[in-house]
Amino acid sequence: MSVWAVYALLVGASFRSRVQYKRSFVLETLGRGALTGLELLAIVFLFDHIDAIAGWTKWEVIYLFGAGNFALGVAELATSGLNRMPELVRSGELDRVLVRPASTLAQVMAQDADFYNLGRLAQGMLVIIAASWFGEFGLSVLDWLALAGSLICGAGVFAALFITSASTCFWTINSGEAFNAFTYGGVQMVQFPLGVYPRAIGMLFVFMIPVGLALFYPAMAVFGRTDPLGAPAFMPWLAPVAALVSLRLAIGYWRFGMSRFQSTGS
Amino acid sequence: MGITYKLFFGANTLLAYGRMSFQRQIAYRTANLAGLFTNVFFLLFRGFALGACFAGREEIGGLTQSQTLTYTTVSQALLMVIPQWGRAEVANEVRSGQIAMDLCRPISFPAMFFARRLGGSFAFVFLRFPGVMLAGLALGFLSAPECSWGLLVVSIVLGALICHSIILLVELSAFWMESERGVRYFVLGLSAVLSGLIMPLHFYPEWILAISKWLPFEHGLYTPVRLYIGEVESVREALTMQAGWALVMISLSFFLFWLGTRKLTIQGG
After folding, report:
1. Among partner residues B33, B35, B188, which is closest to A35 by beta-carbon distance?
2. Whether the Cβ atoms of residue B39 and residue B76 lie closer than 8 Å to each other
3. Fewer CB atoms near the end CB (10 Å): N or C, chain A?
4. Is residue B121 part of a domain?
5. This prediction's pTM
6. Model pLDDT, residue B49
7. Lowest mean pLDDT among A30-39, A41-50, B74-83
């Protein structure tokens, strides 16, 4: 069986187990949607007082908000089983995963996948649609394709961060909690145009942790805004490269950790 | 003996619970450092984003840029001392039946909960507050407080009590539902807005403030931070409101807990 088939099978099983409790499922998905929705409210009200932030208009900033949340939502959904890594390592349950003849990463990612993240994802999508409706961006089909690509790349970068964070479990018992600064911090960061931050932060989130490169640069090119970092014009095209390289590195790091992993056994 | 002994014994036990949870919190050094790191990052993002809104503007919603940046720093510094979310400890205990063990103890469960949570809050006074305040100072965000530290401490303690009761009430909803997580996220969203965590409540329209007046959220984190930047009409009134809400919320959590235990059935095994 291929990696993808195993992954799809396990995700399907988790989904069926979650929707068993219908009321809980609906409530929780709505709850998560409300959580991000209320944050959006803050941005909307902020624009009661101002016309633009760093040259970006209200609906453009709202697009950024939706894009960040959608990309993070997709990544969370795809990798949510990784949240259990510290527990799997500690309890020795990971050994059971290891003896199965299928990709370990795919198994852990798909097991107990957390479908409540659909709330964030769906909400991000709705926000993007609303932004393009009310913002009247006047974009061409190609522009939309570029934005769609940017969302996929963003999801890839976030997924890479989640995998890297979970891989630290092979060495320490606390799964890299510092990565929250880059994942949840990253989605907070891309909610506002890169130009509002000091140069060092911009550079960090474009070149080191390419959340900004994947989500901000394509939007900037499409909306025709100026680049605060003054990087070359081909930068937006590097978004797919950034996503692929980060995923590659993250998976490499996971495999390296796995090769060094010694279960305590019990 | 009798009632005096009982009170003394109770207070001593609660103090011990508080101390234990304080020690547990400071024990994990890497986790604490990682937490501080994340906190400072959020301060950076929120501070610079809100700061940029003042381009060519003197004030927004009655706050100056310097007040807003101070506001952001202090609210981030107090975020873990006056927390807006819990870790589902109680809810998981209710679901698994583990809570039966706690019910056997000769001490009130909600009192024990508050003792533990306050112990944790107190740990963050040392673990988080100074670090984030220093970062704010280094970034040039922070100005000196506009009210005495004594009053601030009172307001912070009352705020912490209010927020811990909100958290307990969310946890207790597990008595009535298979999963309390929907309620948890909904309350979290409400409190993220109405505690002024995302941006100062000054920036929201009148009608939101009118709704907020009837809810406990703004008295947790917002009031102490507002005291700090000197944006309070009457300090006495603000503190009285906090004390009143603390009393109401604490009583409510004791009552709801009592109601929940009447309904609870533990299956022995």
Report:
1. B188
2. yes
3. C
4. yes
5. 0.88
6. 93
7. A30-39
Q: What is the C-alpha to C-alpha distance for residues B55 and B45, in angstroms, rounded to an integer?
A: 16
Cross-chain residue pair A174–B30, CB shorter than 8 Å: yes
Structural domains of chain B, count = 1
The closest CB to that of B205, out of A38, A45, A180, belongs to A45
Region A74-103: what's the mean pLDDT?
Answer: 82
Chain B: give the shortest CA distance to residue A35, in Å.
Answer: 4
Extract the residue ranges of chain B whose pLDDT is less than 50.
none
- Mean pLDDT of all residues belonging to chain A: 86
Q: pLDDT of B240-269, one tens digit each? A: 999 999 999 999 999 999 998 888 777 665
Q: Looking at beta carbons, which residues of chain B come within 8 Å of A41?
A: 193
Structure tokens at A166: 């979970």
The answer to whether position B269 is within a domain reads: no
- Domain assignment of residue B53, yes or no: yes
Average pLDDT, integer, range A35-58: 89
Please write the tens of the pLDDT for every residue from A112-130.
777 777 778 888 999 999 9
How close A141 gets to chain B, by Cα (Å)?
A: 31
- Say whether A176 and B203 touch across the interface (CB within 8 A): no
Q: Which residues of B touch A191 (CB under 8 A)?
A: 49
A24–B178: do the CB atoms touch at under 8 Å? yes
Q: Which of A34, A50, A198 sits opposite B48 (nearest CB)?
A: A198
Which ranges in chain A belong to alpha helices (H)? 3-18, 22-46, 58-79, 85-91, 94-98, 104-110, 118-135, 141-167, 180-189, 199-203, 211-223, 239-260
**Which chain A residue has the Cα nearest residue B177?**
A24
Closest-CA distance of chain B to residue A47, Å: 9
Residue of B nearest to A45 (CA): B204
For B203, nearest residue in chain A (alpha carbons)? A46
What mean pLDDT is predicted for residues A91-111?
81
Rounded CA-CA distance A24/B227 in Å is: 40
Residue A222 pLDDT level (bands cut at 50, 70, 90): very high
Domain ranges of chain A: 3-260
Q: Which residues of A touch B51 (CB under 8 A)?
A: 196
- pLDDT at residue number A212: 93
Q: Can you give the pLDDT at residue B255?
A: 95
- The values of phi and psi at residue A53, to 5°, are -115, 120
Are the beta carbons of B49 and B60 closer than 8 angstroms?
no
ipTM for the predicted complex comes to 0.84
A20 in helix, strand or coil?
coil
Q: Band the pLDDT of A264: cuts 50, 70, 90.
A: low
Alpha-carbon span A179 to B37, nearest angstrom: 9
Interface touch B37/A181, C-beta < 8 Å: yes
CA of A255 vs chain B CAs: smallest distance (Å): 24
What is the rounded distance in angstroms from the CA atom of residue A99 to the CA atom of residue A104? 9
d(CA A167, CA A163): 6
pLDDT: which is higher, A102 or A121:
A121
Asked if the structure places residue B186 within a domain, the reply is yes
